[in-house]
Automatic annotation (TrEMBL):
Protein name: tRNA1(Val) (Adenine(37)-N6)-methyltransferase
A Pfam entry, by short name: MTS
Ranges where the Methyltransferase small domain occurs: 20-174
Molecular function in Gene Ontology: N-methyltransferase activity; nucleic acid binding; S-adenosylmethionine-dependent methyltransferase activity
Keywords, ordered alphabetically: Methyltransferase, Transferase
InterPro entries the UniProt entry points to: DNA_methylase_N6_adenine_CS (IPR002052), SAM-dependent_MTases_sf (IPR029063), Small_mtfrase_dom (IPR007848), tRNA_Adenine-N(6)_MTase (IPR050210)
Gene3D superfamilies linked: Vaccinia Virus protein VP39
Coiled-coil blocks: none
Length: 253
């Protein structure tokens, strides 16, 4: 394994189904299940160009890298998170496939050709900013979770300019923003095609939403996929989630 220097508070976690190792820091940023599910939700093109917006510590792009040979560009505004992602790229020997760009996503076209991207993955800030936003979060979490430095409109506008015709945008978001998301996608000529609601367990309300849209696609043919449940009644992962985390052939202990 490459020797990568860890900074104070950092640890290395592994997603066993992919063998990808990620540098994490719970005080700054740690990926969670939304990143894992997003990396597995869309059909990943085998060639072309993939962009991971709002990439945080790089988890989504790094997990997706195991499913394709296509180059992946990760875009993250925060220097601290971009630095963690860059070291994770080195840790996994993915320098020839994955590139980290520390920049505002609104500058994406400085880094990729206009209408040249096949797939954009995005785990955006979920919460609208209000006076009651939980300001006790660290600055890193605040920017990752609240629409301070970017929002749905900006993400969809950038996607429209960067994606090829029939290129796709895949996002993970919150169900309470569902109508907002659909309206915004359609406003920017991104036709929603696949939607999946994710539930903590049976009998609970959905707490995540995966959505894939196609640039210049027809508005017909929207598929609502079967629900995805994260936990069984006893608190263990369901079989579907266990496989995503540990791989097809893994045995439960």
């Amino acid at each position: 394994m490459t020797n990568v220097t860890l900074k104070a508070g950092e640890r290395i976690d592994q997603l066993f189904s992919t063998d990808v190792k990620i540098i994490q820091n719970k005080d700054v940023f740690s990926y969670s299940i939304d990143s894992v599910l997003l990396s597995r939700f869309p059909k990943i093109p085998s060639r072309g160009l993939i962009v991971d917006l709002c990439s945080g510590n790089g988890a989504v792009g790094l997990f997706a890298s195991t499913r394709t040979k296509a180059p992946i560009i990760e875009v993250e505004l925060q220097e601290r998170l971009a630095d963690m992602a860059q070291r994770s790229i080195q840790l996994n020997h993915l320098e020839n496939q994955v590139q980290m760009v520390q920049d505002d996503l609104k500058n994406l076209l400085n880094h990729v050709p206009r209408s040249g991207v096949d797939l954009i993955l995005c785990n955006p800030p979920y919460f609208k900013v209000s006076e009651t936003s939980k300001k006790n979060l660290s600055e890193h979490y605040l920017l990752a979770r609240h629409e301070i430095t970017t929002n749905l409109d900006e993400i969809c506008e950038v996607a429209r300019h960067a994606l090829k015709s029939n290129g796709r945008l895949a996002m993970v978001h919150r169900p309470d923003r569902f109508l907002d998301i659909i309206d915004t996608l359609r406003q920017y000529n991104l036709a929603p095609k696949r939607i999946q609601f994710v539930y903590p367990k049976m009998g609970k309300d959905a707490n995540m939403l995966l959505i894939e849209a196609i640039k210049d696609g027809s508005t017909d043919g929207l598929k609502i996929l079967p629900p995805l449940f994260v936990h069984k009644e006893n608190g263990e992962y369901t079989d579907a989630i266990f496989e995503i985390y540990f791989g097809k052939n893994a045995k439960r202990h």
